[in-house]
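Quick start: load a record and inspect it. Here is MarR family transcriptional regulator:
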Amino acid sequence: MTTPDDTDNALALESQLCFAIYSTQLAMNKLYRALLSELDLTYPQYLTLLVLWQRDRQTVSEIGEHLYLDSATLTPLLKRLAAAGLVTRQRSRQDERQVEIALTAKGRALRERAKSVPHAAGCAGQCTPEEAAELRDALHGLRRRLDTQ
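Running the structure step on this input writes:
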């Protein structure tokens, strides 16, 4: 908690946690853009495939829960993945309001090529696996606390 005496330092750009996270996110996006260009994927498409590689055949809303995205953001992304032949989109038989997303053979095969991405990102960050895990866990904890606000 800052006091009135700390105002100048508290308002310095480099003192902002939000800026540290934002500028790191920009650097990570730049790194992943380069890594994912070989797979012809955008970063949001990669995240979506990670969710499906973990558990295939999910509804748009289930994927959105994992990625913290709404269906209006996900739908165009999923349509592009379908157009690339990586997923199928089909109305649920149980509830026609739901759209189920499933990997195609091409989408499943891409998983093998994507296995090098996390290691390459870790190497670029020059973190030990333990440091990366600590940082990841701290950020997940921060997000959970912010979600309760």
